[in-house]
Amino acid sequence: QVQLQESGPGLVKPSQTLSLTCTVSGVSLTTDYYAWSWIRQPPGKGLEWVGGINHDGSTHSSPALKTRVSISRDTSKNQFSLQMTSVSPDDAAVYYCASLDCRDDENCMYDFWGQGTQVTVSS
Q1: Which residues have a Cβ under 8 Å from the Cβ of 2 and sit 6 or more positions away?
Q2: Do 99 and 88 touch, CB atoms closer than 8 A?
Q3: Which of 49, 63, 73, 99 has its CA 20 to 30 A from that of 22?
């Protein structure tokens, strides 16, 4: 059974850097049909894709956040991480990590999610 668990501080001050980690169990980050994503949901809004890392270590991020987002992984711990610099109250959200199953190249699907972690941006 694949499980994902987010961890990181729930409170970040404006202009500081948000750091979150997702620990994955049940499957390797390097499994060739999986990609790994960070997705957030601000209060009262829909889901927003933040960025992700593929099985080969290549990364992608939302154009709107690209200059502030960095995604990395530690394969020895089967973890991937999100760093977001210069946060503002607009970055407050529930942050989820999720696995994207691309065994069907034409129909990738998110199949497993972490429970989410609330991030508040406040001084």
Answers
A1: 24, 25, 26, 27, 99, 111, 112
A2: no
A3: 63
Residue 4, helix vs strand vs coil:
strand
- At 8-56, the pLDDT tens digits run 999 999 999 999 999 999 999 999 999 999 999 999 999 999 999 999 9
Q: Residue 12 and residue 3: Cα distance in Å, rounded?
A: 26
Whether 69 shows a pLDDT value over 90: the answer reads yes
Three-class SS state of 89: helix
Residue 53 in contact with residue 71, Cβ under 8 Å? yes
